[in-house]
Amino acid sequence: MLDVASGDVPPVRQVRWRRRILAMAMWAVLFVAASVPIGIPTDPAYAFVWLWALAIAWNSDRPWREHLRFGRDWWPGVALLVAYTLSRGYADDGAVPHVRELVSADVHLSGWVTGGQPPTVWLQHSLFDPGAIRWWDVAASFVYFSHFVVTPAIAVVLWLRSRPLWAGFMRRWIGLSVAGVATYFAYPAVPPWLAGQYGGPVDIGRISTRGWDAIGLHGAGNVLNAAQLDASNPVAAMPSLHSAFALLAVLFVAPMVGRRWWPVLAAYPLAMTFTLLYGGEHWAIDVLVGWAYALATVLAAGAAERWWTRHRLERELAASIDDLEHQKRSAAVVD
User: Fold this and answer.
1) How far is Cα 216 from Cα 219, in angstroms, rounded to an integer?
2) What are the Cα distances from residue 148, in Å, to 15, 98, 106, 142?
3) In angstroms, rounded to a whole number, what is the distance separating the alpha carbons of residues 272 and 251?
4) How far, in Å, CA of 223 to CA of 28, rounded?
5) Whether the Cβ atoms of residue 188 and residue 98 lie closer than 8 Å to each other
6) Residues 153, 53: one domain?
7) What is the pTM of this model?
8) Boundary residue ending a domain (56, 88, 120)
9) Nearest-5° angle of CA 84, CA 101, CA 125?
10) Dihedrals phi, psi of 124, to nearest 5 degrees
11) CB-based contact 301:286 (threshold 8 Å)
């Protein structure tokens, strides 16, 4: 393998890598500088701008017409994700959100371990200290934030490396989002942190972002929470798309890496599950249903793609046979 640092690469490649490193460093500085006062990019349109800038920085030596392809390829998906985000805010209009059956489901699922309590209540009673921020609080905040980074990052990497793989990933990402928002309309559900207002447990806090305080980002959690409350529906808890997207990312990436990395990948949706339960964001049943949605989306998309491939090949084969028969008839007429 060529070593950039040792100088055993052609000068042109050295210049390309130096330019790429400089451009990526500039992107990182601008991203941090914008995130401190404005907040992290959780809105799809705002995140799209940063992703586009990231693609430009990585391929800074390419002509501008190639950079414009990013916008052309991504805008339909981004438009659908923006519509998804906005539509969530209307999912509970005129409906009474569910909470008691979610609490009951969690108790039946894990009450034998948690002493008859929902997992969120048990975890916060066991681990949450209002007077101190522990290492698991910081870890949970990073895992929670990764929901807004991992899926878009995978999409960008795939777009840079393989457009067919990127298209397949986007189909699953958007399909899962559509399935989620359809369920929010059909079954509005209260998250644990809001349950006290609807007859559920009252001693659950929303603490998924409190770990930012330990590393000096005192406003990051408030900005993130405010952005979510402004742009989304607080009673859109079923299914948990945080857990669904985490599993989707793992299922899509796993076949591309060696099996020795599978335990590392599997740890991500498990860490997200702990974060969501401990942070008061979702019930355990929300997580399980989110996983079921992710699996169903992957299976449905795979089946649809295989059907389309067979259909296209059959049409191409039929067209080839027709052309061959036409050529034979033409040859017979000439003879």
Assistant:
1) 9
2) 33, 26, 26, 10
3) 15
4) 20
5) yes
6) no
7) 0.78
8) 88
9) 95
10) -70, -35
11) no
